Amino acid sequence: MIEPLPRHEDDWAYYESEPLFDYVCQVSDMMGETVTDINPDGSIASTTPHLQPFRFASDYLDGKIDTQSIRMDLYESPDIQDTLRAFGLDGSKFWYLCLFIKWRVDCECKTAFVFPKSGMEQLESLANELKKLSPEKSANLQFKIDGSKTINVDNGFALAALCDALISYLPEIANEKCLSPNSYGLDEIEKVDLSVRTKIYLFHEYLSPFVKPLEAIKGIYASKDKSLLISRMIYIFSVCDDPKLYTDLNEKGNKQNQLKGYLSRYKPFKFWHY
What average pLDDT is seen over the chain? Predict the structure, then answer.
């Protein structure tokens, strides 16, 4: 059973003195959550960290966080509890940590603004792809003009020449404002509800630094696979509903590292959230 979270009159108690939030605050520290007060002369007056723990506590105690989708039968199973015990982890504290990370990830992904690639980034990406080609290999580069007319370049030597020209020209236009990453404003970015794959990536990004330094206690028979522990939390807390994240086995019963597969297919991009 998960130990219930008490309601404190002082919000700061969730950071300063609430034992159940020991892991939550540790990860919040890693996230670098700070609020800085500035003096009139521009100097820093004070820095107040860790707003996320009591915001999370408030949402949780007010019933704003879905806990019904958590697969508690799996979380409370011997498989998971023995693993937590092997790493010296408290089951209730770790539960609140995973719920906190899911809350944070859901918030980020629902309030995200995806920044388009700048002109320079697009040209650099094209140059990097062209560098992978050789004149002897078949390739086809297509340009679509005005949404209709398509130009094909399929000659390997022509593509190699294009690559050389592009690489030599990029330094000359590096400072062009029209190609700069800062050349677009908020009216040019897109607000989206990010995909499950992004949520998996962010969940892993936040939980991995906490799990990675853990050392297993000898003599406790349990799975001590840290990657599998993270993978199972992603499934248990319904970040993703793929059951292979929990079993980590394919149809033939062989280990497949399902989480690694999801992470390798994640397409990095820049995004901003509030």
Answer: 81
Among the listed residues 66, 2, 55, the one whose alpha carbon sits nearest the alpha carbon of residue 28: 55
Strands ordered across the beta sheet of 112-114: 190-192, 112-114, 271-272
- Evaluate whether 65 touches 5 at the Cβ level (below 8 Å): no
Question: Distance between CA 268 and CA 227 in Å, rounded?
Answer: 20
pLDDT (0 to 100) of residue 164: 81
pLDDT tens digits along 227-264: 999 999 999 999 999 999 998 766 666 677 888 888 88
Closest CA to 230 of 256, 212, 253, 249: 212
pLDDT at 39: 63
CA dist 201 and 217 (Å) reads 28
d(CA 273, CA 113): 6
Given a contact cutoff of 8 angstroms between Cβ atoms, the answer to whether 114 and 271 are in contact is: yes
Backbone angles phi, psi at 271, to 5 degrees: -145, 155
Residue 10 burial (10 A CB sphere; 0-12, 13-18, 19+):
exposed
pTM of the model: 0.69
Instruction: Characterize the bridge pairing of strands 271-272 and 112-114.
Output: antiparallel
CA distance 65 to 60: 5
